Amino acid sequence: MARMTMIEAVRSAMDVSMARDDNVVVFGEDVGYFGGVFRSTQGLQAKYGRTRCFDTPINESGIVGTAIGMAAYGLKPCVEIQFADYMYPAYDQLTQEAARIRYRSNGDFTCPIVVRMPTGGGIFGGQTHSQSPEALFTHVCGLKVIVPSNPYDAKGLLIAAIEDPDPVMFLEPKRLYNGPFDGHHERPVTPWSKHDLGEVPDGHYTIPIGKAEVRRVGSAVTVVAYGTMVHVALAAAEDAGIDAEVIDLRSLLPLDLDTIVNSVSKTGRCVVVHEATLTSGFGAEVAALVQEHCFYHLEAPVVRVAGWDTPYPHAQEWDYFPGPGRVGRALAEVMEA
């Protein structure tokens, strides 16, 4: 089996989908001739031509608005917002149009678009290249939200998203593009070529949207995470020597609540980790659901570890970034409660 980086896995997913279905089109800023700022679309224009992989003006609202019209016409656009931080001009199109087409047309129309966007920090990108806006999408009825943590999942989930009849927000943690970053920024990053989840089939396969994965089995405390924070949580559990069960959500909406409830009912403790700002982050939803469904099993309050309630600080990146130290302290806190 081939070993791929997450960039290569994402590219392979689009390649496989375009080969299987002529209605799949890829477009966005610099995705054609240049191959994307992270090279996620490299070679697709040369292989499929300029009508199926093409560049757009710097106009996020226009990119998504065009995709919605194409989807209503019968195409399957997979578009790229160059950084998640730039999605705000397109938010009106996503929330008022894409998310509501099925409902407002009584099922006569669907909107099979995928909006890909690199998300998160850890690359010294500063406040306009490091945001994690996933919670803004999970609040919108009609959108599906995916955040993969590894190349194998990225490819299978992206193919599933492209084949899904409804709009899917596909957030790619850019700190994971080349390796499973665990938050230890002072150490070299292990490449995906040396990680089991870097093994990715060349052909077509899908991973069900809405199904979480238990990455580490444990009995003392449940850690719920997604994206880069999955690897941080694994490192924190190992560093702290705590028998933690680590859940990789993969899909935020729809959410695999059963896996969370089953785990917390077993462990009696829960820590939720995400990179986005704390207030109204997706961790608040997870914490509320755990309290609602697992109250009589809890041995300690649910604890959240997240980014600060500030713009992403370039000069204090590793203090803002929820690393293994912060997660480890949260694990110790719930174990001592």
From TrEMBL:
Coiled coil, from the record: none
Keywords from the UniProt entry: Oxidoreductase
Domain Transketolase-like pyrimidine-binding residues, every copy: 4-179
Keyword Oxidoreductase annotated: yes
InterPro entries: THDP-binding, Transketo_C/PFOR_II, Transketolase-like_Pyr-bd, Transketolase_C
GO molecular function terms attached to this record: branched-chain 2-oxo acid dehydrogenase activity
Enzyme class name: oxidoreductase
SUPFAM superfamilies assigned: Thiamin diphosphate-binding fold (THDP-binding), TK C-terminal domain-like
EC number: 1.2.4.4
Cofactor(s) in the UniProt record: thiamine diphosphate
Keyword Cell inner membrane annotated: no
Top-rank taxon: Bacteria
GO biological process, one term: response to nutrient
Annotated TM spans: none
SMART domains in the cross-refs: Transket_pyr (SM00861)
PANTHER family named among the record's database cross-references: 2-OXOISOVALERATE DEHYDROGENASE SUBUNIT BETA, MITOCHONDRIAL, 2-OXOISOVALERATE DEHYDROGENASE SUBUNIT BETA-RELATED
Protein's UniProt name: 3-methyl-2-oxobutanoate dehydrogenase (2-methylpropanoyl-transferring)
Organism (species): Rhizobium esperanzae
